[in-house]
Amino acid sequence: MSHPVSSDRRRFLSRIALGAAALPLLRLTSAQAADLPHLSPDDPTAKALGYTPDASKIDPKKEPAFKTGSHCGGCALFTAPASGDFGACGAFSGKAVNQGGWCRAYAAKA
Ligand code: SF4
């Protein structure tokens, strides 16, 4: 018997993986990244991944996946903007995230 939550979670995680795999093909220029609308923490996908625009407010005891000091600016899925703090993110197509933010899809740059 399949569990609906597990199935949804699996589907969601595979979409994230596909998005990350396609990132090099879809990478926006820094100027394009700066023009995207900002991702709201209330967005359903943002909530599912625990996105916050301010990583400094994360309590590592409540968010075990968070490593102190990690933030969007150091994430492989982040495209830095030409100016400002918000850039594109491979996990949230069409939205800009704060480079001081964080979510559970964080992947440290190699
Ligand atoms: S931590 Fe990475 S994947 Fe998560 S919102 Fe920031 S840039 Fe995107």
Walkthrough of the structure:
The protein is of the alpha+beta class. It is built from three helices and three strands; from the N terminus they run αααβββ. Strands 1-2-3 form a three-stranded antiparallel β-sheet. The longest helix has 23 residues, at 4-26. The protein starts with a helix and ends in a 12-residue tail after the last strand. The relative contact order is 0.23. The site of iron/sulfur cluster has 13 residues, from loops.
Helix-strand category: alpha+beta
Profile the largest sheet: 3 strands, antiparallel
Total individual domains: 1
Q: What is the CATH architecture descriptor?
A: Irregular
Name the bound molecules.
Answer: iron/sulfur cluster
User: How much of the sequence is in beta strands?
Assistant: 5-15%
The top-level CATH class is Few Secondary Structures
Assign a percent range to the helix content: 25-40%
CATH H-tier superfamily: High potential iron-sulphur protein
- Counting DSSP H or I runs of 4 or more residues, the number of helices is 3
Q: Which word captures the global form?
A: globular
Low-confidence stretches: none
Note the gap between the termini: 40 Å
Average pLDDT over all residues = 84
SSE succession: HHHEEE
Radius of gyration, taken over Cα atoms and rounded to an integer in Å = 14 Å
| Widest sheet: strand ordering | 1-2-3
The CATH topology name reads: High-Potential Iron-Sulfur Protein, Chain A
Number of strand segments = 3
